[in-house]
Design brief:
Distance between the termini of chain A: 37 Å
Oligomer: heterodimer
Number of helices of chain B: 0
Largest sheet of chain A: 7 strands, mixed
Number of strands of chain A: 11
Order of helices and strands of chain B: EEEEEEEEEEE
Radius of gyration of chain B: 13 Å
Largest interface: A-B, 24 and 24 residues
Helix content of chain B: under 10%
Helix content of chain A: under 10%
Radius of gyration of chain A: 13 Å
Structural class of chain B: mainly beta
Order of helices and strands of chain A: EEEEEEEEEEE
Number of helices of chain A: 0
Chain lengths: ~120, ~110
């Protein structure tokens, strides 16, 4: 099946710094990429949807100036958590879609810990 | 908004059958997905139901009743490798997936 690579798998950063997470589709071109966040014992929550070359669409309650999304190519999307705070500590996971939503493939996720 | 409920945990014996229920109240329903997720790994697609009824795929089957807002995932002939989290997700519109919190299934020898 298709492979989506997410990097890094885990990261620890100091409060106030920024962290960039990459999501790459390795063997296909993704028309759309999605970013999710998951807190412990809770469901995956969609943060934003991005299409190559256009601005991301953010879900209600997600600060676009804090979570910067860049979808520069059909195989790469990045999520930058700016001025991170401990409450941003979470599991961030991306998915890349080609065509129908049944062809959406997930990355392995990034565990972010802000200290 | 959306409300998607599934049990938190289930335990079963190797070789047995387990049924994971999912109830939902969402707007713009356009289908229901089941994913399997092992710890530290990406969720992987198991099934997609958009019409009422049962979809069978090997040891895994998924059922949907749109009028009842209800689905289940049936795992037969359980194997140890089936120990994982199972995520129920509702498709709203063309692309938005809303997930339940997941059901952790533990298979015991």
């Amino acid at each position: 099946g298709a492979v989506v690579s997410q990097h890094p798998s885990w990261v620890i950063c100091k409060s106030g710094t920024s962290v960039k997470i990459e999501c790459r589709s390795l063997d296909f071109q993704a028309t759309t990429m999605f970013w999710y966040r998951q807190f412990p014992k809770q469901s995956l929550m969609l943060m934003a949807t991005s299409n190559e070359g256009s601005k991301a669409t953010y879900e209600q309650g997600v600060e676009k100036d804090k979570f910067l999304i860049n979808h520069a190519s059909l195989t790469l999307s990045t999520l930058t958590v700016t001025s991170a705070h401990p409450e941003d500590s979470s599991f961030y996971i991306c998915s890349a879609q080609v065509g129908e939503v049944t062809e959406a493939f997930f990355g392995q996720g990034t565990r972010l810990t802000v200290v | 908004g959306q409300n998607i409920d599934q049990p938190t945990e289930m335990t079963a014996t190797e070789g047995a059958i387990v049924q994971i229920n999912c109830t939902y109240q969402t707007s713009g329903f356009n289908g229901l997905f089941w994913y399997q997720q092992h710890a530290g790994e990406a969720p992987t697609f198991l099934s997609y139901n958009v019409l009422d009824g049962l979809e069978e795929k090997g040891r895994f089957s998924s059922f949907l009743s749109r009028s009842k807002g209800y689905s289940y995932l049936l795992l037969k002939e359980l194997q140890m490798k089936d120990s994982a989290s199972y995520l129920c997700a509702v498709l709203q519109g063309d692309y938005k997936l809303s997930f339940g919190a997941g059901t952790t299934v533990t298979v015991r020898a």
